[in-house]
Amino acid sequence: MSTLEMASSGRPLSGPRSRLAETLWRIAAGALIAMPVGMAIAHRSSPVFLVLSALCSLAALAAEGNLHPFVRRVVAALRSPLGVTALVFAGWSLLSVGWSEFRGLSLAALGEFWLPIACAFVVALALPRHLMRPAFGLLAGAIVAACFMMIIELRTGLAFRQMIGRRWNSFIFNRSLLTLLVLMPPLAIWLAVNLRRGWIYALALVAFVAAAMAHGESGASALGLTVACSVFVLAWFAPRAVAGLAMGAFIAAMVAGPFIGPISDRLIPSFVHERLAKDHSRERVDIWISFGAAIREQPILGTGFGVSPRMRDTTVAEKVPEADRTLLAVGHPHNVAIQIWTELGVVGAALALAIILLVVRAVRRQPRPIMSASFALMAAATAVGLVGHGAWQGWWAASLGAAITWMLAARKAFLERTP
C-alpha cells in the first residue's frame, strides 16, 4: 500500500479521500510542469502556478491527514540556521516599512515578494516526493514547447499577438527565457543521471533553451546560461574550489554594493560598452553610480523595503548630487546587492549575505551531480541578479522557487538510485 493511501496515523485512507489526495497532488505537480508554457504566454504568470501548487499541496496533505506532521517539518526547517536567518531577514524587511516614505509601496512589494517565497517553501517541503519520472518527462516537453512557441512568435514578428491586440514587444519574452534558464539545471541533471545516454538529452535541452535565447533580446539570460554551464563544469571537477570561490564572490559582491558603480566605471573599458551597447551596459553603470550615492547617504537602515521605484522622490535623493538624481527614477538599480543596500541598509545586506553563505554550505554537502547543478543554478540566478531585474519581483521569486523544488526532486531521485 502506498504512502498516499495511508493516513498519518497509519490507518488506510478511504477510497474517496485517497483519490482526492492523489488528484490534488497531480494538480500541484501539473502547475509546476505548466509554468514554462504559461510564462511563454503570459510573462509574469509564474506566481499563479506556484500559488496553485502550494494550495493543492496543502489540500492534499489535509486529505491525507498529514498536515500536523507537515507543520512539524515546517517548524524544524524554520529552526535551522538557514530558517532562522531567513525569518530575521523577513522581519527586518517588515520592520523597514516603519521608516519607508512610501509605506503603501513597501507593503505591496512585501506581498509581491514574500507570498511566492512562502509558497515556494511549502512546495519545496511537500511536493518533491511526488515529482517522479513522468513529471520530469512532462517538464522537458513543456520547456521544449515553450522554446518553440517563443521562437515561432519572434520569427513571425509576434503577428498573432498583434492580431489579437496584445503587447507585441519582443522583450516581453525576457522573463520567460529567464524562467527557462533556472528550470534547466535540475531537469538537465535529472536527464543525465536517470536516462540511458542522458547526457545527450541534457545537452539537447541546453541547445533548445540556447536557441530560444538567441532569438530573444535577453542579454541577462544569455549571460546566465554561459555562467551556469561554466560553473557546472568547474563544480564537477573542482567542487571544493568552486564552493570557496562562490563564498568569496558573494562576499565581495555584497560588501562592494555601495561602490560597484564607481568600480565598474573605472574598470570597464569604453570599447566593452560599445560592444554591449544593445544591452545598455553604460547606462547600467550610471544607474549603479546613482544608487550607490543614495546608499552612502543612508547606509545603516536604508530607505525601506521596495522603495526603489520611488527613490527619486525620497528625501535621501535630495542629498544625492544633482547630476546623479535623474537615474534614481529608473525603477530599480538593476543589481540585487545594490538594491538590498539601498532599501535595507547594511543590516539587510549582512542578513542576505548570511543566507547566501548558508545555502552555499548546504549545496556543498550534496552528491556531486546535484551539487554541480545547484551551483550552476545559483550562478545563473546571481549573474542575472547582478545585471538584470529587480530583487523583489514576484515572477522571479516564483520561478526560482519552482527551480529549487525540481532540484530537490532530482536529488531525491538520485539518492534513491544510489546504493
From TrEMBL:
GO terms for cellular component: membrane. Keywords: Ligase, Membrane, Transmembrane, Transmembrane helix. It is found in: Membrane. The chain crosses the membrane at residues 23-42, 48-67, 74-95, 107-127, 134-152, 172-191, 220-238, 245-263, 344-363, 370-388, 394-414. GO terms for molecular function: ligase activity. It is a multi-pass membrane protein. Pfam families: Wzy_C. Residues 205-352 form the O-antigen ligase-related domain. InterPro entries: O-antigen_ligase-rel_domated (IPR007016), WaaL-like (IPR051533). It comes from the Bacteria. This is O-antigen ligase family protein. It comes from Microvirga alba.
